[in-house]
DNA sequence: TATGAATGAGGCTTCATTCAT
DNA sequence: CATGAATGAAGCCTCATTCAT
């Protein structure tokens, strides 16, 4: 879809170019997390990055591309943290527990990332076409569903619609984080335990 | 801050004033649901209401107040539908099931309301202070938690943090609706069953 | 193609609306004539009109619509002046002479209109689709060609391609005006005579 | 105003300097012809030349100078083609005919040059002062007028204002080319004949 | 010589809000 | 009560130009 990256017309990017892009993405992440999507103007972002507004236009096709990059980086980072932990486990039950635990754990130490991610996923609206995050989110749900299905085949989990439950779990985790964001007094570790426990009971085979 | 002239600030509002406000709120709801929060300008809303933009400013303090009213009405309507159904049940278990069922049921026949509610709750950002919806959502969660607690006392539910589970349930319902919105082929009734079942397993006392 | 005029959403326009549009069109005409198309920004136009930039946006869909209106008005005015004079004549020869004479005469007393017209016809480039002036110009040329053809049928004019000659005549008139614009010392009346004479000799039947 | 550093201002320019300038001028010509004046940004031109934007700034004072050079080269090339052909003829009548014919012929096989020339002559607007093409165009007209005058003295042409007719002829040729550009189906050779014929009749002495 | 990078001016639009009628 | 009209702030983007390397 995208025909040219920035600086327009070049394919390769120098080291300094990469650094600037990273810096701007970082600034954008913080800005979105702090003032919210709608107030995260290029002016704001530029100011926080200590650069001029047009530098952003120079390194990115436009605001849309910048925000997509921000989100993409957040997805990557999150998954890079979760994947080894989840697949370090062997049983489906342990994988699900680790999924929830690691996601909560990651975001609990990356508050800004979480806020930015939620804001962007929720608000981003490209000029044409549909949100590019739908796919990422869809893939994540599919991955989760796959684990659930395996657990059912192994007799670990009872019978339910894996797809529906995957969505429920995803939402529950996001909800827990949302609560924690809204209320600092919440102990996320306790919450995590409760959530893991809740899910465990909900999906585990009766015999288990 | 609030000017004491004009409708807001008055104690008594004429019938026509009430009617206009209702009409505008209705139009705003539809607009937000249809074109999304960010594209729901006063101009758009006014056009759909068949009135002039300034009428809105006349009847509402500003866009912020209007959207707050929209959300407030949606909360009220939803709760007005759910309350008798939930409390028509006696056991905590049945109440929870009815809570989930009735919420899904209400929104499934009020698609516009659901869309508008999500958009507003998600995007609304007052110029000063924090979101006024936090309270409403908080109250709803508290209500749900109360039922859960009762179920625990009655021995219906096992031991868990009622507050945390209340949030999880709320999120799960919203998630299910979101899925249904995104994918028309989903059968919401089936989904409702799965969700109720999921929650049932998660919270019901082992002995149950 | 255009779905709504300004103020957006209304069909009828009040008197004051009409007046403002006329005022803005007038200011735009002058601005384009004076500083040239490329420097005729909305800011410039607004300043000359003594109004705020956004007033233009309020009354017109955008810069494109404004300039189209400017051009449309110029075409209309020009033709309103020429038509009765041209068709006040009966013979094709006289009609052609009057065509040239009246066009020169009109623009010689509407310097600004001429400049604006040339600038817009030359520079205007709509965001999508092709120039809407092509048609107007085409029609004018066709009209001229029709007269030429009639003259040939009546034996007044010799044999030539009417379409090609129509273009030549049109260009010649524009060229003459361009000269006059560039050099104030030129006497346009003399020039007009020369031009009429030139064309006369070029097209008149040998026997004539 | 002009800074004395760097290439411009130097008396001697290296071979590589000359080559670069030529390359840039060529790219600019093509760009202007293809995408039109207003979209012919330095970025576009640089991209087509396969060089970086700043190279242009290095070799030319600015965009203005570049475009002036482009136009100057086009004028030169055109005249280099026309001159021997026109003055290969002896009689004024033949010279005029050859003038028209060779100009049409040159541009018909240099479509890009014609497009670029028209775009630049039409759109170019220096930051200060007036268009530098006025002079070139003026000289061409003067040259043409000189031939016309000679034709009158020789009794070949009838009495008319040579200056005015020179302009008319120039415009007519440009108009014919414009038509041809706009409509590919036009046979330029036929058109050329019609034009030559038209002019012939217009200026030739009655006795001729 | 060449260039990647950065800049700031300026352009068009959208929008909530205000005000006189 | 209602509204047409006007406004100014703010947003994003494009572009010629400059500068250090």
TrEMBL record, chains A, B, C, D:
Domain HTH tetR-type: 18-78
DNA repair is among the record's keywords: no
DNA-binding residue intervals: 41-60
Molecular functions per Gene Ontology: DNA-binding transcription factor activity; transcription cis-regulatory region binding
Pfam families: TetR_N
Keywords: DNA-binding, Transcription, Transcription regulation
Key word Ribonucleoprotein present: no
PANTHER family found in the cross-reference section: HTH-TYPE TRANSCRIPTIONAL REGULATOR BETI, HTH-TYPE TRANSCRIPTIONAL REGULATOR RUTR
Protein name from the UniProt record: TetR family transcriptional regulator
Species annotation: Phytoactinopolyspora mesophila
Organism taxonomic ancestry: Bacteria, Bacillati, Actinomycetota, Actinomycetes, Jiangellales
